[in-house]
Amino acid sequence: MDGFYFYWLGWIVFGLMTFFMPKTIFRAIGSVIVLALLLFVPLTWTYAHYSFSVGFVFLLVCCYAAIGQRAMKQLIYPLFVSIVIAAVYFGVQAFIRMDPVVLLVGPYVVQLILPVCVALLLLRGYKRSIVLVIGMMHGEVFVQIQQSQGMPVLIGSLAFWDLVAFSFIFSVSITWITVVIQQLEKRTVRRHIPPSSIGNRIDKHA
Q1: Domain spans of the chain?
Q2: InterPro entries given for it (predicted)?
């Protein structure tokens, strides 16, 4: 059932942020965004023969606001990466339309492996997840416009939200794992490398 994984993972994330994260402004804003997204996704807004998920527009604006806090020069590379991810997502969807048999491998794996790999190779840190989502959303817009051909289409279907949920959770998990490994490495180095005694020697002979 389309949207099952999105709602399942969304409520889990909302619960974790609300009850387990420290009381910070990040937790408050994040919880509100997740809850609003869960409420807005089923709502649609129609213009001509295009129907937009309200949640789609809401999340895109939130991602723009998050990434737009950087200086203009620092936005060039994330913008380039988002365009690459959008092109990769569009290419994968076009290939699936020509040869849907590849979905037998696993529909989510086939549709996500290339965009996620591009994000992992070209970006790091929390901004990777945001740029990945922006790129996939841009790609979804291109896919639906190309498929419409004058027919009504929905931009931001529940099936697409499943893909967004999986890709975002995977990207964030990789970021957290990387941070944990780096912290463990620092602690290990501190334990096994004794402090330098050069300062003590200088003091004795002073």
Answers
A1: 4-186
A2: YphA_Bacsu
Per-residue pLDDT tens for 142-177? 999 888 877 888 898 999 999 999 999 999 888 888
Kindly give the pairing relationship between strand 44-47 and strand 50-53: antiparallel
Distance CA 155, CA 152 (A): 10
Dist. CA 57–CA 42, nearest whole Å: 12
Check: CB of residue 160 under 8 Å from CB of residue 111: no
Kindly report, residue by residue over 3-47, the tens digit of the pLDDT.
Answer: 888 999 999 999 998 888 888 888 899 999 999 999 999 999 888
**Within 10 A of 11 (CB to CB), how many other CB atoms are there?**
13
Contact criterion met (CB below 8 Å) for 134 and 63: yes
Whether the CA torsion 171, 31, 138, 131 is positive or negative: it is: negative
Q: How many residues does the chain have?
A: 206
